[in-house]
Amino acid sequence: MKLEPVIGLEIHVQLKTESKMFCSCPNHGDIEAPNINICPTCTGQPGTMPNINAKAVEMGMLISYALGGEVAGVSKFDRKNYFYPDLPKGYQISQFDLPISQHGKLTIRLNEGREGEREFSVGITRLHLEEDAAKLLHIEGGDGKSSLVDFNRAGTPLAEIVTEPDLRSPEEAKAFLQELRLIMRYLGVSDADMERGQLRCDANISLREIPDDPKNENWSTQFNPKTEIKNLNSFRSVERALEFEIKRQTKLWLDGQIPSILATRGWDDTRGVTVEQRTKEDSSDYRYFPEPDLPPMDLTEMRDRLSRMVPELPEARRRRFIEQYGLARSDARTFCDQPDLANYAEQVFSELEVWAKSVQTAGGQELTPERAAKLVSGWVLTKLNGVLSTHKLDLETMKVDPENMAELLTMVHNNQVTGTNALLILEEMVLTGIDPSQVMKEKNLGQMDDIDALREAAQQAIANNPKAVEDWRGGKTTAVQFLVGQVMKITRGKAPPEEARRILEEELGKL
Ligand code: ADP
Ligand code: ZN
Ligand code: MG
């Protein structure tokens, strides 16, 4: 029996609006003392009236367009009735039959530029807006019988995104969520940080048997009752919980106990297991009905404006980085996964173009686009990141502006400085913001162009290392590389490696 996982996700994204979904309270409850940002509306006092936050509607529409959804002409809010201590009104204002949008699709590339690269698409069933609940605080060391309620979060705007059951592995689920998070950041609608609850995910999973003839049309839409896993608050836990469920459900299948009813389970991150919870309500238990205090929204006029406001999205930017700058696919991805770094790289590229012209005028070796791509990925992606992490800095706190970065890369390109010393210069630039030519002069880190001195260093390296010379005589070519290293040491990194090697070989030939 061959089993295949069928996975669909329900994702909540907290929207970064100034105020809450239905009142004017500030929308940043998680950084404040409890119960500061509250009012009669978001605490559910009788007789209060909700007001729709237009900004939240715009953000919902923006996400919809980014996910290729069809935005409704008319959309309305509904009451979803249930009791829980974190829900002051006894119902949540949500959307039932007329959500903001439906029928979207997101295509994801896995393992880009690596082995196992492939693409898959996930249907977006719908996107609707709703309000978040309050937060319950179960105080540790308390009597275990009482909890506190913080209403700051109550009424925070949420976009709920529901996918089709199109995902086929935990790996796909994780990749999908990561791309979704990035899209939220590109849109500027949410920081979508899972650890901070700004992106929350429930994962639905069932198994099904792959038939002998998988091309059979009927089979492709046949699913079995699903299990919903709640409380997933990191990408890692989404992946682990799904892996655990696959194992658990596979065992049930093999034991002949195929799950036959819908189930809800929680994820226990410490124990690494899912645990049975109450069985799932279906929508009739919520007694949805139209929210009588809010008129339906006519979105036809906003649609035009919002559809044109969608910025360049991560995938389009990656393609552009590959085409426009000639970056390797995996490098383009690494850049675009970090919007700040991608912006920085774009500025460095544009400054490099200016430098490329000056190199040409000076009659140096042409700084081609291919060369520029290599320099930027090597120095911005790898070396700069390395220096930043050594000094616990980031792009905001470090001091190298794109113009200086491009100048340094041009110096490397022109062999005015060795790689080793360029790294020292970069470190100084990161800390002080001084431009590279000045650092080079002050610290005397320029490349040696004195051939006689270089030859002297080569002779010294040969004299000091008879063992390496012997190895070289015995045909060990790596011995030369060792000697180049020695020349570097003697010249304190200022020898141009290619030139040093040439002279070493000349000198060795004379022996
Ligand atoms: P419910 O009414 O229980 O919320 P929905 O049909 O609205 O169920 O689907 C909720 C989520 O569960 C969606 O993301 C959907 O893709 C996923 N889903 C639905 N059926 C299955 C199934 N058989 N196996 C796995 N996931 C499923
Ligand atoms: Zn309020
Ligand atoms: Mg549902």
UniProtKB/TrEMBL annotation:
<dbReference type="InterPro" id="IPR023168">
    <property type="entry name" value="GatB_Yqey_C_2"/>
</dbReference>
<dbReference type="InterPro" id="IPR018027">
    <property type="entry name" value="Asn/Gln_amidotransferase"/>
</dbReference>
<dbReference type="GO" id="GO:0006412">
    <property type="term" value="P:translation"/>
</dbReference>
<dbReference type="GO" id="GO:0050566">
    <property type="term" value="F:asparaginyl-tRNA synthase (glutamine-hydrolyzing) activity"/>
</dbReference>
<keyword id="KW-0436">Ligase</keyword>
<dbReference type="Pfam" id="PF02934">
    <property type="entry name" value="GatB_N"/>
</dbReference>
<dbReference type="GO" id="GO:0070681">
    <property type="term" value="P:glutaminyl-tRNAGln biosynthesis via transamidation"/>
</dbReference>
<dbReference type="GO" id="GO:0050567">
    <property type="term" value="F:glutaminyl-tRNA synthase (glutamine-hydrolyzing) activity"/>
</dbReference>
<comment type="function">
    <text>Allows the formation of correctly charged Asn-tRNA(Asn) or Gln-tRNA(Gln) through the transamidation of misacylated Asp-tRNA(Asn) or Glu-tRNA(Gln) in organisms which lack either or both of asparaginyl-tRNA or glutaminyl-tRNA synthetases. The reaction takes place in the presence of glutamine and ATP through an activated phospho-Asp-tRNA(Asn) or phospho-Glu-tRNA(Gln).</text>
</comment>
<keyword id="KW-0648">Protein biosynthesis</keyword>
<dbReference type="InterPro" id="IPR017958">
    <property type="entry name" value="Gln-tRNA_amidoTrfase_suB_CS"/>
</dbReference>
<keyword id="KW-0067">ATP-binding</keyword>
<protein>
    <recommendedName>
        <fullName>Aspartyl/glutamyl-tRNA(Asn/Gln) amidotransferase subunit B</fullName>
        <ecNumber>6.3.5.-</ecNumber>
    </recommendedName>
</protein>
<dbReference type="Pfam" id="PF02637">
    <property type="entry name" value="GatB_Yqey"/>
</dbReference>
<dbReference type="InterPro" id="IPR006075">
    <property type="entry name" value="Asn/Gln-tRNA_Trfase_suB/E_cat"/>
</dbReference>
<comment type="subunit">
    <text>Heterotrimer of A, B and C subunits.</text>
</comment>
<dbReference type="GO" id="GO:0005524">
    <property type="term" value="F:ATP binding"/>
</dbReference>
<dbReference type="InterPro" id="IPR004413">
    <property type="entry name" value="GatB"/>
</dbReference>
<feature type="domain" description="Asn/Gln amidotransferase">
    <location>
        <begin position="353"/>
        <end position="508"/>
    </location>
</feature>
<keyword id="KW-0547">Nucleotide-binding</keyword>
<comment type="similarity">
    <text>Belongs to the GatB/GatE family. GatB subfamily.</text>
</comment>
<dbReference type="InterPro" id="IPR014746">
    <property type="entry name" value="Gln_synth/guanido_kin_cat_dom"/>
</dbReference>
<dbReference type="InterPro" id="IPR003789">
    <property type="entry name" value="Asn/Gln_tRNA_amidoTrase-B-like"/>
</dbReference>
<dbReference type="InterPro" id="IPR017959">
    <property type="entry name" value="Asn/Gln-tRNA_amidoTrfase_suB/E"/>
</dbReference>
